[in-house]
């Protein structure tokens, strides 16, 4: 039976979301281990976090491309038949898996907007997992300096030694105190010689 | 159709079917899913990869430029498609090609997937040469796989690369002019411990 292309789109969306989540989580781990932000590490060692990141990327890609497709769909699009409209629908064999997901969006493949949406969701999920597990890792780790708030550092700098909740508290407090000054400083024309305030000053002088 | 394009695509695509493993690898690389995800994940990683506040700011600006450039390159490709509806190679060459990919219905020039890859690569290149080169190479391999699969001409790939780099250059210029808006956005992220 030929399935509805929307069912294929839903299946592809689920599989792509999983890959986007795992690859994003892996990329995040490599980045935060490079930056040294312990509050986001899934494991309490820099090198282990980096290797875990690489492993997550490999697993994410493998899960997507090697996952059996035993449901009927326009799989094996890499056939020599150039006219996708006449391609027969069916299940994909192991040998066809490499090209099975090359499906045009009119036949159930993901369109560009769907790609962007699923990637954004996957990346947000990866960030949430990284922050939550990172908080646990910092709390359980001996490297944790204290239970309370982070020091004077704000933003990601606060997560070098502290978990997300305490870094967030400190960052918000610092921002509350300094936002007026920050905004005022950034609007000074000399802060960005090519920026809007500098352009506006030149226009007014003329 | 110029002989440069025809000769190269016929020779490259002529290798299809000879090495099954290489064909499968090209099918995976040519897919709509792998390489765009690589470019997006690289942009995500760029946000968090800076070691110092100064370096992080530069990386985060590059990330904002990169994702904006990807959007602008899509727009430029769409405009160029309106100006020139170049048919895909399999339309011209028909049975002479072994198609390893589904037959896309949009115009061939310029290659949109390659434009996106080069836009991301150029943004990364501005702040980190190694990552920039890696992304340029990934985008080039992506383009190669699409020519091998028979869905793009070589000049489509060259055009896509030029559009991607131009989009990043344009976005970087706009980014400088629109300061302090992106800088304030990064400051806002820092207030939530994410910048």
**Helix share bin of chain A:** 55-70%
Mean pLDDT of chain B, to the nearest integer, reads: 95
Gap between N and C termini of chain B = 50 Å
Order of helices and strands of chain A: HHHHHH
Please describe the biggest sheet of chain A, giving its number of strands, its sense, and whether it closes into a barrel.
Answer: none
Question: What's the number of extended β-strand segments of chain A?
Answer: 0
Spatial extent as radius of gyration of chain B: 18 Å
Quickly count the helices of chain A.
Answer: 6
Radius of gyration of CA atoms of chain A, rounded to a whole number? 24 Å
Task: Name the features.
heterodimer; A: 206 residues; mainly alpha; 6 helices; 58% helix; 0% strand; flat; B: 195 residues; 9 helices; elongated
Description:
- The complex is a heterodimer of chains A (206) and B (195).
- Chain A is mainly alpha-helical and 206 residues long.
- Chain B contains nine helices and no strands.
- At the A-B interface, helix 1, helix 2, helix 4, helix 5 and helix 6 of A face helix 2, helix 3, helix 4 and helix 9 of B.
List the helices and strands and how they pair.
The complex is a heterodimer of chains A (206) and B (195).
Chain A: H1 5-35, H2 46-66, H3 97-100, H4 112-140, H5 164-187, H6 196-205
Chain B: H1 3-14, H2 20-30, H3 34-48, H4 53-83, H5 89-93, H6 112-127, H7 129-148, H8 154-177, H9 181-191
């Amino acid at each position: 039976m030929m399935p509805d292309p929307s069912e294929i789109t839903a299946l592809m969306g689920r599989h792509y979301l999983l890959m986007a989540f795992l690859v994003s989580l892996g990329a995040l781990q490599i980045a935060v281990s490079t930056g040294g932000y312990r509050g986001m590490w899934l494991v309490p060692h820099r090198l282990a976090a980096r290797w875990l990141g690489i492993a997550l990327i490999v697993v994410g890609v493998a899960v997507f491309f090697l996952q059996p497709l035993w449901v009927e769909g326009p799989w094996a699009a890499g056939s020599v038949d150039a006219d996708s409209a006449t391609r027969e629908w069916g299940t994909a064999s192991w040998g066809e898996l490499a090209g099975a997901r090359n499906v045009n969006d009119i036949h159930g493949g993901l369109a560009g907007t769907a790609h962007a949406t699923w990637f954004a969701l996957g990346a947000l999920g990866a960030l949430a997992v990284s922050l939550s597990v990172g908080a646990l890792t910092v709390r359980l780790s001996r490297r944790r300096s204290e239970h309370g708030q982070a020091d004077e550092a704000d933003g990601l700098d606060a997560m070098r030694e502290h978990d997300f909740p305490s870094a967030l508290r400190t960052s918000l407090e610092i921002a509350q105190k300094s936002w007026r000054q920050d905004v005022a400083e950034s609007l000074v024309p000399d802060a960005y010689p090519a920026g809007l305030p500098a352009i506006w000053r030149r226009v007014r002088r003329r | 159709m110029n002989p440069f394009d025809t000769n190269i695509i016929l020779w490259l695509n002529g290798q299809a079917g000879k090495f099954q493993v290489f064909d499968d690898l090209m099918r995976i690389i040519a897919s709509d899913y792998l390489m765009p995800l690589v470019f997006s994940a690289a942009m995500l990683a760029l946000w968090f990869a800076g070691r110092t506040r100064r370096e992080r700011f530069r990386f985060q600006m590059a990330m904002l430029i990169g994702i904006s450039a990807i959007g602008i390159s899509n727009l430029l490709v769409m405009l160029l498609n309106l100006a020139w509806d170049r048919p895909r190679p399999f339309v011209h060459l028909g049975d002479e090609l072994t198609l390893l990919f589904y037959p896309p219905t949009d115009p061939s020039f310029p290659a949109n997937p390659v434009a996106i890859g080069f836009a991301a690569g150029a943004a990364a290149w501005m702040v980190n040469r190694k990552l920039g080169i890696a992304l340029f190479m990934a985008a080039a391999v992506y383009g190669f796989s699409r020519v091998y699969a028979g869905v793009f001409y070589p000049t489509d790939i060259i055009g896509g690369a030029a559009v991607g780099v131009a989009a990043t250059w344009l976005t970087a210029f706009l980014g400088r002019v629109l300061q302090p808006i992106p800088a304030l956005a990064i400051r806002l992220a820092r207030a939530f411990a994410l910048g």
